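User: hey, got a sec? need Ribulose-phosphate 3-epimerase folded
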Amino acid sequence: MAEIAPSILAADFANLQRDVEMLNASSADYIHVDVMDGMFVPNISFGIPVCKAVYKHAKKPLDVHLMIEQPDRYLADFKKAGAAGLTVHFEACPNLHRTIQYIKELGAAPGVALNPHTSVESLFDILSDLSLVLIMSVNPGFGGQEFIENTYQKVARLNRLREKFGYSFKIEVDGGVNLDNAQLLIREGVDILVAGSSVFNSPDPVQAIELLKNS
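Assistant: Yep! Here you go:
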């Protein structure tokens, strides 16, 4: 059974408290917070004030995914805003080891996200330091995109590395996740499913989360 991290990028921003309280009452394990700066990705979502507002009402840990350039500048602020985990992009961090150590010093769980074109082998020398590896199954920047099929093979390779060396990081997948692909993703080794549109666009989001969890 996978853990579920609904992405509030797909929530109703005019009723954000309502949607966070719905997630509190659901079987979701985390609340996924997608932060976009309009530079690293071609979209702007929200920043520290919204994260802080979500945290005020959240009873689930905030899984904060920073799709931003130079994330080191904002790590402490997002930790103060309630982040339990801070995930940065491999592609945005020229000194990734230092960034991961800083996240640890702040007391957050360190994660690294990989864009679809970036191989899991790129993380080989830092996997032992990570709590989470996030595999992007769409190109980051917009919700509601179509799932990239190569993701299954990518997850399987990462899972083999984890098993071979006895690492403890969790594997998370974000982008186009739904009931059609959840079971196969779990079979390949995914621990956490991020779901946005498939949850919030459902007639019954609580049930949608439950169905994903029991995939």
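Quick note: The radius of gyration is 16 Å. Let me know if you need anything else on Ribulose-phosphate 3-epimerase.
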